[in-house]
TrEMBL record:
This is 3-methyl-2-oxobutanoate hydroxymethyltransferase. NCBIfam families: panB (TIGR00222), PRK00311.1 (NF001452). Belongs to the PanB family. One of its GO terms (molecular function) is magnesium ion binding. Its EC number is 2.1.2.11. Keywords: Pantothenate biosynthesis, Transferase. Gene3D superfamilies: Phosphoenolpyruvate-binding domains. Pathway: Cofactor biosynthesis; (R)-pantothenate biosynthesis; (R)-pantoate from 3-methyl-2-oxobutanoate: step 1/2. It catalyses: (6R)-5,10-methylene-5,6,7,8-tetrahydrofolate + 3-methyl-2-oxobutanoate + H2O = 2-dehydropantoate + (6S)-5,6,7,8-tetrahydrofolate. The keyword Manganese does not apply. One of its GO terms (cellular component) is mitochondrion. The keyword Transferase applies. Catalyzes the reversible reaction in which hydroxymethyl group from 5,10-methylenetetrahydrofolate is transferred onto alpha-ketoisovalerate to form ketopantoate.
């Protein structure tokens, strides 16, 4: 798709039903992103998520998704201390979680780690720009590459992770001109989120795109549905029907053979 100039679609999933939906929608790539820490598990950031939690979710997604290329995020703290740690957890993702590739956050400083992971046959998707795992150091979730100096650093990071062997990279929260220029300069695809239309592909967090998570909505999100409202309304209606005995109706109830019933009463 990249070679043909066809934009690549990527969407996150976190469990069996969402993996199945990504597959059925024909989406090209499926990301078990560590954003699931916030949108599915209720943590305040992605930082507390463990490798075991991630594997649990990725296995469920893999049972639903059969066709989209499956990428899993390496959780914060599982891969930074040494390339050996990174290789070990990356292999776990393929062996235990049925992932086909891993994603990790960082630029130049992660180049050696990316080189080591790819050398053992695990494809790596890099992630630069806004790196949510480092939100404490970045001072929150905010746009990156807004000064000429920062933009140059982003380009240097992009070239470094490409050189290290990444098969592509996520560009998050970067002005579109900068993301477009970085994309032009590379020989591998960029997957944008809040990075404009000139990236090689796009990714969104499913719970944001479907309007399931509304604690906060990033500027770059587009809500394609408002499922939170639809689902909450459905649950309220159920609650009301239980209270009025409108549910269950005869259609939701099992019959019994009248002869058997007569015997029972006797
Ligand atoms: O965790 C995630 O969902 C991500 C995407 C936003 C790229 O990393
Ligand atoms: Na992530």
């Amino acid at each position: 798709m990249y070679k043909n100039g066809e934009p690549i679609s990527m969407m996150t999933a976190q469990d069996y039903p969402s993996g199945l939906m990504v597959d059925r929608a024909g989406i090209d790539m499926c990301l078990v992103g560590d954003s699931l820490a916030m949108v599915a598990l209720g943590y305040d950031s992605t930082n507390p998520l463990t490798m075991d939690e991630m594997i649990h979710h990725c296995r469920a997604v893999a049972r639903g998704n059969k066709t989209a290329f499956l990428v899993v995020d390496l959780p914060y703290g599982s891969y930074e201390a040494s390339p050996e740690d990174a290789v070990r957890v990356s292999l776990r993702c393929l062996k235990e979680a049925n992932a086909e590739a891993v994603k990790l956050e960082g630029g130049k400083e992660m180049a050696e780690t990316i080189r080591r992971i790819t050398r053992v046959g695990v494809p790596v998707l890099a992630h630069i720009g806004l790196t949510p795992q480092r939100q404490s150091a970045l001072g929150g979730f905010r746009v990156q590459g807004k000064t000429a100096k920062q933009a140059q650093e982003l380009l240097d990071d992009a070239l470094a992770v490409q050189e290290a062997g990444a098969f592509g990279m996520v560009l998050e929260a970067i002005p579109s001109e900068i993301a477009g220029y970085i994309t032009q300069r590379l020989k591998i695809p960029t997957i944008g989120i809040g990075a404009g239309v000139d990236c090689s592909g796009q990714v969104l967090v499913m719970n944001d795109a479907l309007g399931l998570f509304d604690r906060f909505v990033p500027k770059f999100t587009k809500q394609y549905a408002n499922l939170n409202q639809i689902m909450t309304n459905a649950l309220s209606q159920y609650h009301a029907e239980v209270k009025t005995r409108a549910f269950p109706a005869p259609a939701n109830t099992y019959p019994i053979d009248p002869v058997q019933l007569e015997k029972f009463w006797k």
